[in-house]
Design goal:
The protein has a seven-stranded mixed beta sheet, with helices on both faces. The chain is built from five helices and seven strands; from the N terminus they run βαααβββαβαββ. It is of the alpha+beta class. It has one domain (3-171): Gcn5-related N-acetyltransferase (GNAT) (Aminopeptidase). The longest helix has 16 residues, at 13-28. The protein binds coenzyme A (COA).
Amino acid sequence: MELSVRFAVPADAASLGEFMTRNFLAAYAHTASPENVRRAIADNYAEAAQQRQLSDQKNLGLIAVYGEDWAGHALMTLAGAAPEPVVLRPAIELARFYVDTRFHGCGVAQELMARVKQVALQRGAASLWLSVAQSSQQAIRFYQKEGFRISGELIYMFGDDPKDDWLMICDLSA
Ligand SMILES: CC(C)(COP(=O)(O)OP(=O)(O)OC[C@H]1O[C@@H](n2cnc3c(N)ncnc32)[C@H](O)[C@@H]1OP(=O)(O)O)[C@@H](O)C(=O)NCCC(=O)NCCS
């Protein structure tokens, strides 16, 4: 069976809400209070938030599908403001990059990232940037293998709880 990657559409909101809630909880529920986890899901990941994000022209979502299963999801923001250290412009934000826990370590992340880079290049980007939790060693390691470099620090508001993130940048010409 082959992995395929397609663009997300607003009709994916309910399934994507379920996918992201489940995988966000698996990855980050232990790093914040239950109230802040609840707020983060409602604000960013649940069905209504997905509907809003997927209907916004500046966002571009990708879904990796393996057979009947959703294996991964990426969200790119095309027209947002990039942090100052992002000097290679135009730059696209990789706002979300998740592989279902069942597919970690299987190469899905690499295939989905290859598609993200392809789409970013097609859109004329010189670089991709992202914000990743400093505690998320697995994700940082993956991004480093994919050519992203730590280029500064950012604060991520997890509900009302400020968390230390790394700013990571990938030069798409490299
Ligand atoms: C980040 C993510 C997409 C990477 O996908 P993946 O399939 O795990 O990627 P890889 O198999 O290449 O693993 C990445 C590295 O982390 C290592 N790793 C695996 N589990 C780990 C753990 N618990 N702690 C630290 N490193 C770990 C792997 O060994 C690998 O490094 P190596 O190639 O040097 O051995 C995936 O882990 C994920 O979806 N995580 C949850 C969501 C998330 O945090 N996304 C990023 C938000 S910015």
